[in-house]
Amino acid sequence: MKVTYYNVGKIVNTQGLKGEVRVIPITDFPEKRFKKGNKVYAKLDKKPDLVTLVIDGVRKHKGFILLHFENHPSINDVEYLKPSLLQITEDTLSDDDLKPGEYYYHQIIGLDVYDRDQQLIGIVKEILSPGANDVWVVARDGKSDLLLPKIDSVIKQVNLDAHRIVVDIPEGLDE
Q: What is the pLDDT of residues 145-173, one digit of tens each?
C-alpha cells in the first residue's frame, strides 16, 4: 500500500547550537502539525529516502517555528536537514480539523479557477499565509500570477468534486 505524504513545512536553517531548526510553516494547522510527540518526515534535496523525526520541542520566533527533534541534541545533528521539506502522512489528517468552508492546502492547489462568467482564469499553484487571510496564487497563461485573498467576497465557490473554484475579482486586483 502506497503512503501519501503532504508538505507541512520547510526547514530553512538551524537556530543556535542546541539542535533547533527554523521552519517556515506551509500548513493550514501549524499548531496541530508541530506538537511535541508528533512524527514528521524530512524530504532532503536530491535524496530518495525520508528521515523520520519526532518533535520534542516547539516554539515560535520571528515568523518561524523553531523545532527540536528527539536524539538531535546539537547543531551538528541537524545541519544535514537544511534545506528540506517536512511532511506528514495522510493518515494523520482528520476532517475534524476542518470547519465548513475550510480546506486543506493540498485540496486547493491544482484546482482550476474560473470567474463568474465561467471563463478559465488559471490554476492555483500555491497558498501563502502572510497574515489574517491566506492568499491563493493563481498561475495564468501569458500573464503574471494573480493573488487572490481567501475571503468570502472573492472566493465564491469551491467544488472539489468538479475540480474548480469560482471567484469574483475585485476591481483593481487584476492590474
A: 999 999 889 999 999 999 999 999 988 77
CA 10, CA 21: separation in Å to the nearest integer? 10
Residues 6+ away with beta carbon under 8 Å from 132: none
Assessment of whether the complete model's pTM goes beyond 0.90: no
For residues 128 and 137, is the Cβ–Cβ distance under 8 A?
Answer: yes
Which residue's C-alpha cell is 485573498? 149
Residue 25, amino acid: P
Q: Which residues contact 175 (CB under 8 A, 6 or more apart)?
A: none
- Burial bucket for residue 9 (CB in 10 Å: 0-12, 13-18, 19+): buried
Provide the 8-state DSSP code for 98. Answer: P
